[in-house]
Amino acid sequence: GITTSMFRKGNCHDNAVIESFHSSLKSEGFNAQRRASMSNSKVVQIVNQYMYRYNHTRIQAKLNYLSPLEYKGQVA
To answer: How far is CA 31 from the centre of its chain?
Structure first.
């Protein structure tokens, strides 16, 4: 269910946001896990838990120290 990016080939700025997110996911979601021996269902579980935390409880300085959903509620 994921749509791939259709931006220009070879432009690193197009991928900066998702590369930053992937870095956060790997360092925060899989920090103490042995990734080589994980099942697919365990990876899906960890990613789903991280996505919930990222959107609902993880505060971000760039969002005035609010979670993304709190920030969205204030600007709407």
So the answer is: 14
Alpha-carbon gap, residue 55 to 63, rounded angstroms: 12
For 57, the token pair is: 């409880």
Q: Is the pLDDT of residue 8 over 90?
A: no
How far is 49 from 55, CA to CA, in rounded Å? Answer: 10
pTM given for the model: 0.67
Phi, psi of 66, deg, nearest 5: -120, 160
Which of 24, 44, 43, 27 shows the shortest CA–CA distance to 35? Answer: 43
- Taking the C-alpha atoms of residue 68 and residue 54, their distance in angstroms, rounded to an integer, is 8
